[in-house]
Amino acid sequence: MNGAAAILKALEMQGVDTIFGHPGGTIMPTYDALYDSPIRHILVRHEQAGVHAATAYARASGRVGVCMATSGPGALNLVTGLQDALMDSTPVVALTGNVPQHLIGTDAFQEADVVGITQPVTKHNFQVRNVNDIPRVIAEAFYIASTGRPGPVLIDFPKDVQQAEFTGSFDVEIDLPGYKPTYKGHPRQIERALEALQKAEKPVLMVGGGALNAAPEIVALAEKTGIPVIPTLMGLGVFPGTHPQCLGMPGMHGSVAANRAIHHADTILAIGLRFDDRVTGKVSRFAPHAHTIIHVDIDPAEIGKLVKTTIPVVGDAKWVAAELVKGAQKLNLSKWWAQLEDWKTKHPFAWKPKPHLQSQEVIQAFWEATQGKAVVTSGVGQHQMFAAQFYKFDAPRSWINSGGLGTMGVGLPFAIGAALARPGELVIDFDGDGSFQMTLQELATLKKHNLNVKIVILNNGFLGMVRQWQDLFHAKRYSEVYLADSNPDFAKLAEAYGIRGITLTDKAKLHETVKEVLAHPGPVLLEARVYHEEGVFPMIPSGGAAEDMIIENPRETVAGD
Amino acid sequence: MRHLVSVLVQDNPGVLQRIAGLIARRGFNIESLAVGRTHQPGLSRISLVVSGDDAVLEQVEKQLNRLIEVIKVTDHSEPHVERELALVKVSIAGMEERLEVKDIAEAFRARIVDVAKKSIIFELTGDSTKVNNFVEAMRPYGLLEVMRTGAVGMSRGEQVLKVREKKAV
Ligand SMILES: Cc1ncc(C[n+]2csc(CCOP(=O)(O)OP(=O)(O)O)c2C)c(N)n1
After folding, report:
1. Which of A315, A444, A555, B61 suits B5 as a labelling partner, its CA being 20 to 30 A distant?
2. pTM surpassing 0.90?
3. Does the pLDDT of residue A434 top 80, yes or no?
4. A181 and chain B: CB distance < 8 Å anywhere?
């Protein structure tokens, strides 16, 4: 057996069944071995899509996603996707080929310092220099990627290592003396957290993507105590969006109820979130009345990084939440809830009726037609925020988007990865005309595997989110955001790939078109031509605080309450 | 505030790049960085001097701890020994200066390791303040070259940086 075959065998032993990748010279031995392997390989048309698909595969399934690329240009195309996975704490293992060891450092054909370049965008990376290290390094990579705070790990295999004769053992032990994640939160800190909750008059429970595995415990904790819950953009679905205790997401485009609740809260229990600036706004003005902030995170470096924490709990969200459930008691929050209900009912996410079709109503129509039973992905921009606002996510792992890095172009590869991870389930990609065009070549991958992905392009003819900022902060100087004069006919584009394409312009046909899209077996691309100048509201201008929230589009009504 | 931090690491290829890269990327202000092997095969020890308030120090430690190859990080706030080695080349105009310079060196217990017609090289060990003071004392005579290793440090007494015994999983 050569190194390449050992790589695949070691991957199999890790339970890998799918690899997203693109071949090339230095990874060819492994592609050759793949020919005889039971592992399924999904050929993407660009490596960036491969790492994004692996990311979505991981997020949709809860397992490790795997992608593969050749050296130099192939490996470098992974960089954006690795950082995306890093920011959103997703377990991904990326395998790259490299030039043979005697050529490393000589500017050889298709050589790049991939280990150096990917250091800042991975949780850890390896270069295997001895063929017999393959099983141990792969075991360590999967262990690092999937434990503690999950993240991407890259393993670089020089070509000669793939070709060398393997004489080692697959019975390996992980040897990482410097890596020991803490799973069990400190009992005294948990006790203190429970005491603080007991005394709280205006508590909120914030949950992020780090709590994905803790959904049942979070629901139990919320229901036992009666605390209102605020899932972040990455935490949507960790707590059911339709649950009466759900206030919606916080932050720049969060709900009025969520942002005001945080602003007035005396106690914040934050589980598995990192207080991103899109959530906090100006940190010095974040949660000014909260005398107690309890922060639960498996990564000690997140605690106290941005927001001053009163009670830090380092540990696994699921484990800590379960402990909290055990000790929690019903709180008397009737006064607090009266206030919260008032904000909720007065300021739900809403839009004003217009003669044109609007993104929000398209998303709402899909939510109603699917009853929320779909895995939803999105690109980055207004459509992403609208999807987060108007599709109610009731289950964890049903919303896959790029929260931390905000990577345009993830929508379609995410949908492909999710569809392969969850066979038989419906996947909807709400995409923007701009975002979609960053990775549209993956229509080919979609076609090849005939996945049940419904792409819904909310075509506003603009790089809408940028246009919104230009509208509000740059005196409507729409510099380089106009797309409509050169956008393709998206439905025809889909048809060119052999995928069903539909165009929707007439508002009256919305519901019937949604039905048609959902009824069609296999992939469909729906281009919905939506109102041009829509803005996402509410909005907290960047660097602002909850009090600066603009609730409705100031171009259409007067701002304020 | 100035802090001396010791880091025990696995000395895999590239580990220094990882540490230096992390520090640069996170914008921490590093005054010095010194690395060397330990008595245990496979383990190196890094001393770094950072300046910043407690919050900065806490983040430096936490971020370093996130690196897989970092085994242990300690801030030497407790009594510790701290040393730096410096080589200082001073220009000498004449006999009178030569004697003055030698007197100063004696006071600092600096050793002469090279003498030439118009220059002398001194070797000095001590904490960073001592080295600073020596360099300042020599400045009026004309500093030709100063080479410092950066501070290394160790806790006094039995306290040691070591690999934790058992997996805490
Ligand atoms: C790769 C990348 N480049 C640039 C940006 C900056 N950016 C954020 S939103 C946006 C516009 C997105 O336009 P579109 O996909 O059409 O969505 P819309 O906002 O119109 O819904 C841009 C350019 C980004 N997030 N990602």
Report:
1. A315
2. yes
3. yes
4. yes
